[in-house]
Specification:
Layout: H1 3-26, H2 34-50, E1 74-76, E2 86-87, H3 90-104, E3 112-119, E4 122-129, E5 132-138, E6 144-146, H4 149-152, E7 170-178, H5 181-193, H6 202-210, H7 215-219, E8 224-234, H8 242-252, E9 261-264, H9 266-279, E10 287-294, H10 297-303, E11 305-306, E12 309-310, E13 313-317, E14 322-334, E15 339-351, E16 354-360, H11 364-370, E17 373-374, E18 377-381, E19 389-393, E20 403-404, E21 418-420, E22 427-429, H12 436-447, H13 459-467, H14 482-486, H15 493-506, H16 511-518, H17 525-535, H18 538-543, H19 546-550, H20 557-568, H21 570-581, E23 603-607, H22 614-624, E24 628-630, E25 639-642, H23 648-656, E26 659-661, H24 663-672
Parallel strand pairs: 2-13, 23-24, 23-25, 25-26
Antiparallel strand pairs: 1-6, 3-9, 3-10, 4-5, 4-7, 7-8, 10-13, 11-12, 14-15, 14-18, 15-16, 15-22, 17-20, 18-19, 21-22
Bound molecules: 2-(butylsulfanyl)adenosine.
C-alpha cells in the first residue's frame, strides 16, 4: 500500500480513538463498548508496528512510555503558578466582593463571578505547542516544578493533541489532577487485600501516583484532570471572559468541571456555595471549597495580584474533613457476632462539621499498618456520614509516654477466650450469647426497625434490661412484666404500657423478618427474604441440608455454613422455640421458586432520594418480586428507579438507554405487580 494511504488510515484510526476518548473521559458520555475501542486500538498498534517510521508521539497508542525515568527534571514556569486567598465564612467572602467593587470603581454593583468547585488534588501545568502536548509539570513552589510529562500522558482525560482551528500556537493549560473517590476506595481495598500500605486520602494517592518514575505505575492509577485556567498563551488569542476560556478548552478536548457556573453578585455566590456544600458528599471526588473568580478578564487584569495570590479570586473553604488530635486511649468494643473492634478515644476535635471523640481503628492489621501508639498525635478524617477514622499518625510527635496498643487475650466484657479465625483480620469473643456485649447487640438488632420493629426499646433500655439481669436473650424480651419495667430507672407507666403494646404487636411478623432478626451471621435482609420465599416455612428451612441451602439465590458456602451451625445449635433452637411459645408467629408462604417471581432475572438500580418509601424499602420490594438490586448501572440493567438528587447513575442510564422510573411511576408499577403500599 502506498505510504500516503497508510498515513491516511493511521490518521483515521487515531482520530476515531481520540473522539471516543473525548466522549468518554471529557464529556462523560460513553459512546462505544470497550471491546470496540480495544479492537480499533489494536488495529492502530498493528499498523504502527508494521510502519514504525510513521509512529508519532501524540498517537493514542503512545500513552505509556517504555523507559522509566531515573529522576525528575525541573521545569521553570514562565508564568508563575500562584495560589489563592481563602475566605473561611460568608463575611470574608462579602469583604472580598467589596474590595473587588472598590478597586474597580464599581461600588454597589453586582460583579460577575465564575464559580467552580475547588478540587482537592495536585495543581499541574500542561504545555501544548501547535496543539500537541509537550510537557506536563507540577506546580512545585509556583516558580519551579517537576517535569511529569511521562506520567500525565497516561491520564486518559488529558489529550495528547488538541482539536480545533483556533488553538493558540503556545497554550499552557492549568488544572487539578485528582483521584475520584470510587477509584481511591478500590485502590485502598486492593492494597489492604495485598497487605500493602494504604493511602491516607485521595489527594495523597493522586500525589503519590504522579510522583512515579515509571509511567506504567501511574497508568494503573485512576487519575483524572479538570482544567481551570491558562498560563502562557502565545501566537493566538483567547476570549474576554474566564467562562469563555473554559468553553474553548472544552471544545479543544480538555476536561472542565461540569459544576462551573457564572453568577452575578456576592449573594448568588453564597447560594452557589450552599448548594455545592449540600451536594459535596454526592460528588464523585473530594472538594475542599469553592473558588470564585471575577469572570471578566479585563477586570482581572485591572485587579492584578498581591504577593502570591490574585486579587480577582478567592477560595471559600468548607469545614475541614481532616484534623489533628491526640489519641488518648484505645478501647475494645464487642459486636453482635463477637467481633472485637479497637476504638480510638480522642481528644475531642471539630472535624467534618461535628465534634468527634471516638474513631474506629478497624482491626489489628489496621493498627499495625498505622503504627499507632496511645498518646500519638493522629489525623482523624470524617467525610459525610461515614464513621470517623484515624487515617495516619503525625510523624515526629511521639512522646516518651507513648504506649503500644495491646489487643486483649480474653473478651473485655465477659472474659471468654478470643480467637482469630484463619484468614480473618478480626478477633472474636468466643463467649457467644454468654457475653453481655453480644447479648445486648443481638437484642438491639432483634428489635430494630427492619427486624422485629419494636418501638420504644432503645439502646439505653436494652442496656438496663441486660445489666439488671431481666433479659438474657431475645426470647426474654417477651417475658418481661409490667412491674419489672416500672422498677427500671426513668420508666413511667405510659412508656411501659406503650412498650408492652409494641412487644405484643411485634409478635405478628413475617418469616423473613423473623429470620433476619435472629441475626445469623452474614444473613442480611435480602438473604433472609430469599430463604423465606424459597422454603416457605420454618420447618423446611431448619431441616434444609447445606446443598438445599445453596440452591437459594444469594446463599453461598459461607452463609450456608453459618445457617447450618445455627440450626444445629440446640441453644439457638431453644430460643426460637421460646419465641414461638410466647406467640411470635408468621403466615407460611406458598413456596415460590425464584424463577417464577414476576421480576425474576431482572436487575434494577435505585438512586436518588425516594420520598414515600425510602431506598431500602424500594430495594426490599424489588427483591421480594425476584429482581436483583445492583449498585451500578450497566448495559444489563433492566430499569433504574430515580428520585430527586440522582446523579451519575441516572446519566449513565440515559446514555445506555435503560428504562428510568420516577417514584410515582415505580409505585404504580409495584401496584400492577400486586404490591399495595
Ligand atoms: S485557580 C491564580 N481554580 O487551589 C489562581 N485553583 O489554593 C490559581 N484549585 O494551587 C488557582 N481547584 O491547586 C483554581 N477551580 C480552581 C481550583 C484551584 C483547585 C487549587 C489549585 C491551587 C490551589 C490554590
Amino acid at each position: 500500500m502506498p505510504s500516503d494511504d497508510i498515513e491516511q488510515q493511521l490518521e483515521t484510526l487515531r482520530t476515531q480513538l481520540e473522539a471516543w476518548n473525548y466522549q468518554y473521559y471529557v464529556l462523560d458520555q460513553p459512546t462505544v463498548p470497550d471491546a470496540q475501542y480495544d479492537r480499533v486500538m489494536r488495529s492502530l498498534q498493528q499498523l504502527e508496528t508494521q510502519h514504525p517510521e510513521l509512529l508519532r508521539a501524540d498517537s493514542p497508542s503512545q500513552r505509556v512510555g517504555a523507559q522509566p525515568l531515573s529522576e525528575f527534571s525541573q521545569v521553570a514556569h514562565e508564568v508563575p503558578m500562584l495560589s489563592l486567598d481563602n475566605a473561611f465564612d460568608a463575611q470574608e467572602l462579602r469583604d472580598f466582593d467589596r474590595r473587588v467593587q472598590e478597586r474597580l470603581g464599581l461600588t454597589d454593583s453586582e460583579i460577575e463571578y465564575a464559580c467552580e468547585p475547588k478540587l482537592d488534588g495536585i495543581a499541574v501545568s500542561l504545555l501544548y505547542r501547535d496543539g500537541v502536548l509537550q510537557r506536563g509539570a507540577t506546580r512545585g513552589d509556583g516558580y519551579k516544578g517537576e517535569d511529569i510529562t511521562h506520567n500525565v500522558r497516561t491520564i486518559p482525560s488529558i489529550p495528547l493533541r488538541l482539536h480545533g482551528d483556533d488553538i493558540p500556537g503556545v497554550l499552557e493549560v492549568r488544572g487539578e489532577i485528582y483521584m475520584p473517590s470510587a477509584g481511591f476506595e478500590l485502590l485502598n481495598q486492593r492494597a489492604r487485600e495485598a497487605g500493602e500500605k494504604t493511602f491516607v486520602n485521595p489527594r495523597n494517592a493522586a500525589a503519590g501516583s504522579l510522583r512515579q518514575l515509571d509511567a506504567k505505575m501511574t497508568a494503573q492509577r485512576p487519575l483524572e484532570m479538570c482544567c481551570y485556567s491558562v498560563g502562557l498563551v502565545e501566537e493566538g488569542a483567547l476570549p474576554v471572559s474566564h467562562a469563555q476560556v473554559l468553553d474553548c478548552l472544552l471544545r479543544w478536548g480538555l476536561r472542565i468541571n461540569p459544576e462551573s457556573r457564572v453568577v452575578r453578585g456576592v449573594a448568588a455566590c453564597e447560594d452557589y456555595y450552599e448548594s455545592l456544600a449540600q451536594k459535596r458528599e454526592r460528588l464523585p471526588y473530594d472538594i475542599d471549597g469553592i473558588v470564585f473568580k471575577v469572570n471578566d478578564l479585563a477586570q482581572q487584569q485591572r485587579l492584578g495580584f498581591v504577593s502570591r495570590a490574585p486579587r480577582w479570586a478567592i477560595a471559600r473553604k468548607f469545614p475541614a474533613q481532616e484534623e489533628m488530635t491526640r489519641l488518648l486511649d484505645v478501647e475494645f468494643q464487642v459486636g453482635r457476632t463477637g467481633a472485637i473492634t479497637p476504638v480510638a478515644r480522642l481528644e475531642p476535635v471539630f472535624v467534618g462539621g461535628v465534634t468527634v471523640s471516638n474513631a474506629t481503628l478497624h482491626n489489628s492489621d489496621e493498627v499495625q499498618r498505622l503504627g499507632v501508639q496511645i498518646g500519638d498525635t493522629v489525623i482523624v478524617r470524617r467525610a459525610g456520614d461515614v464513621i470517623p477514622q484515624v487515617v495516619s499518625v503525625v510523624a515526629g510527635q511521639r512522646t516518651a509516654g507513648a504506649r503500644e496498643v495491646v489487643f486483649p487475650e480474653c473478651c473485655p466484657v465477659c472474659g471468654s477466650p478470643v480467637e482469630r479465625e484463619p484468614g480473618e483480620a478480626v478477633l472474636r469473643c468466643m463467649g457467644g450469647l454468654v457475653c453481655a456485649a453480644q447479648q445486648k447487640a443481638a437484642i438491639r438488632h432483634f428489635v430494630s426497625r427492619r427486624a422485629m420493629d419494636i418501638d420504644g426499646l432503645g439502646d439505653k433500655l436494652v442496656e438496663q434490661l441486660v445489666d439488671e439481669g431481666l433479659v438474657e436473650n431475645v426470647a426474654g424480651l417477651y417475658r418481661v412484666s409490667r412491674e419489672q419495667l416500672l422498677n427500671l430507672e426513668r420508666m413511667g407507666e405510659k412508656s411501659a404500657d406503650k412498650l408492652l403494646a409494641a412487644l405484643q404487636a411485634s409478635k405478628q411478623t413475617s418469616l423473613a423478618r423473623f429470620l433476619f432478626a435472629l441475626g445469623v451471621r452474614e444473613v442480611g435482609e435480602a438473604t433472609a427474604l430469599s430463604l423465606a420465599r424459597y422454603f416457605g416455612n420454618w420447618e423446611a428451612l431448619a431441616a434444609a441440608t447445606e446443598e438445599q441451602l445453596l440452591e437459594v439465590d444469594d446463599v453461598g458456602p459461607v452463609v450456608a455454613d453459618h445457617l447450618r451451625q445455627f440450626f444445629d445449635s440446640s441453644s439457638s433452637l431453644e430460643v426460637v422455640a421460646q419465641l414461638r411459645a410466647s406467640g411470635v408467629t408468621w403466615p407460611d408462604l406458598e413456596r415460590v421458586t425464584p424463577e417464577r417471581l414476576p421480576l425474576a432475572g431482572q436487575t434494577w438500580v435505585v438512586t436518588g432520594k425516594l420520598e414515600t418509601m425510602g431506598r431500602n424499602d424500594a430495594k426490599g420490594f424489588l427483591q421480594e418480586l425476584g429482581a436483583k438490586v445492583a449498585g451500578s448501572v450497566s448495559a444489563r440493567t433492566t430499569c433504574v428507579v430515580a428520585g430527586p438528587g440522582a446523579g451519575s447513575k441516572l446519566s449513565r442510564a440515559t446514555e445506555l438507554d435503560v428504562d428510568v422510573l420516577d417514584e410515582a411511576a415505580f409505585i404504580a408499577r409495584l401496584e400492577t405487580l400486586g404490591v399495595s403500599l
